[in-house]
């Protein structure tokens, strides 16, 4: 049964309708279903509406066209689409809108939700249970969902063009390391499009069950792919996956995996990745941003630490601020005009990190192993036209370069 929430004013109804529609329980499938839209809506700005437009493709910009032959996809992976919502638009005409900031009503509602979450944290007993053996919960998840829960991430090579480059016939020997490979929904689409006879894909996951699923898949080709159990935050002999030595990886992929780590594991994980990636190599990153619908809808007994939660299935998830994430990986504070602005960013980053990890235990800009290539905030308004629901999503997508 759902926990009661604070009353919502009429002005908040539209902004919070998605939360209300999903607050029918705290089952694992509910929580994961909300978050799985992170996989299925990356390219949703080209989705078709329920009815066709009477306008011809020549009269409509390609990114707003209902004609499949005229649905132009973006070429800049950090544009995150060009379908901007204006006051003149019918919000329910499309499945999704790009660059949509949450309105004040939804922000107010979200802050009230965070206060309720902080007021009813995970018990000390459960905190020890969930943090003590996180592999157990991921094994259970993949045992229950096998390979059918998430869709193949065919969009990754559009979002990260380097994944196309290493697959070209003349690219030469290249190694991709996917961390948190799950059931192979990233590795297999890359393998299917590969034309490089010298490409190697190392697909690693914390869960033995997930790795078994990959190895049993008919697309598993040991000539180009190797799947292994590996904890990215492992220490000692377990700090590197089987078959990979120092500076052996050209591209590392971390998609919705860093958020599954405890903040106390962040530095170890980055150190391990840094040892594996060649100087000049790339880390392709995508994860959850603070204020995402999946965070706002958490109820009692799910709050571990600030922005860090336990889902109904026992797996963990953290929601990042953009500046915080850049600081974690590069030690750098985003440049803001004026001393007052810079001081504000520094204070915000330290405050966000303080509850979860000692900022001093992370990196300074001088000793950080990575520099920032790009970090974008992908804000979407996902629309359920049939039910007239609006869902605010927020993801962070970036590229880090090994020094």
How many helices? Answer: 13
SSE pattern, N- to C-terminal = HHEHHHHHEHEHEEHEHEEEHHEE
User: Please, what is the average pLDDT?
Assistant: 79
CATH superfamily of the largest domain: Vaccinia Virus protein VP39
CATH architecture of the largest domain: 3-Layer(aba) Sandwich
Count the domains: 2
Instruction: Give the N-to-C terminal Cα separation.
Output: 51 Å
Overview of this protein structure:
This protein folds into two domains: 10-114, no CATH class; 122-377 and 394-402, 3-Layer(aba) Sandwich (Rossmann fold), CATH 3.40.50. Helices cover 32% and strands 19% of the residues. The chain is built from 13 helices and eleven strands. Strand 3, helix 9 (208-216) and strand 4 (225-229) form a beta-alpha-beta unit. Helix 5 packs parallel to helix 9 (208-216). The longest helix is centred in the N-terminal third of the chain and has 16 residues, at 104-119. The radius of gyration is 21 Å and the shape is globular. The protein starts with 9 loop residues before the first helix and ends with a strand. The model is unreliable at 1-31, 40-58 and 351-357 (pLDDT under 50).
Give the SSE layout.
Elements: H1 10-22, H2 28-40, E1 96-98, H3 104-119, H4 124-132, H5 134-145, H6 156-159, H7 162-165, E2 174-179, H8 187-193, E3 199-205, H9 208-216, E4 225-229, E5 249-255, H10 266-276, E6 277-288, H11 293-296, E7 303-305, E8 308-310, E9 316-318, H12 322-330, H13 339-354, E10 370-384, E11 389-402
Parallel strand pairs: 2-3, 2-5, 3-4, 5-6
Antiparallel strand pairs: 1-10, 6-11, 7-8, 8-9, 10-11
Helix pairs in contact: 5-9
Organism: Sporothrix stenoceras
Domain Methyltransferase type: 177-283
Family: Belongs to the methyltransferase superfamily. METL family.
